[in-house]
Amino acid sequence: MSFLADIEPLLAERFGAENLAPVDYGHRGYHLALALDQERLRELAQLLWEQGCFLEYITAVDQPGVLELVYFFGRLDQLFRLKVTVVMPKGVAVPSISTILPAADWQEREVFDMFGQKFAGHPDLRRILLPDDSDFHPLLKSFEPEHKHGGQVVNLERK
Residue 115's closest CA among 147, 97, 91, 148? Predict the structure, then answer.
């Protein structure tokens, strides 16, 4: 039996069949999509870790009034990819999964840096790409290309 056939009913039972959807891998690049409440994120990470999965990456999508966090999980021994979305009002922290899946450490920092998303319980949540005193998050749709940096206005537009 395949891992996909084993994990799909387990995810449906634990997190609700209404939140889980099979997806055409050939079209989308993942097998299952799971919509998840932020309160269950660490539980999911622990389950996937125990099932031999790893975190591929974390990103976000800036939507009006909310930030959609997107997590991709996979396996090395079998073709399997799971997309997990957690939709949060902007400014609300989500639990860090970095203590369960260490690969999340720098990825959560990058999402914090680029989108301003905070991760509660992260051991070292600080900027990773931009200067520590930056006052902006460049992947938010509200981003303006000119910002103050160290008392000076910095133009970030490409010439």
Answer: 91
**Which class in CATH covers the domain with range 3-126?**
alpha beta
Q: Considering the entire predicted model, what is its pTM?
A: 0.89
Say if residues 32 and 20 touch (Cβ distance below 8 Å): yes
Domain limits, the chain: 3-126
Complete edge-to-edge strand list for the sheet that includes strand 20-22: 20-22, 32-35, 81-89, 66-74, 54-63
What Cα–Cα distance (Å) separates residue 96 from each residue in 72, 103, 115? Answer: 15, 11, 15
Kindly give the confidence (pLDDT) of every residue in the chain, 159 residues in length, as a single tens digit, with 9 standing for 90 and above. 699 999 999 999 999 999 999 999 999 999 999 999 999 999 999 999 999 999 999 999 999 999 999 999 999 999 999 999 999 999 999 999 999 999 999 999 999 999 999 999 999 999 999 998 888 899 999 887 665 555 555 555 544
Residue 62 half-sphere exposure, CB side, CA atoms within 13 Å? Answer: 14
Tell me if 99 sits within 8 A of 123, measured CB to CB: yes
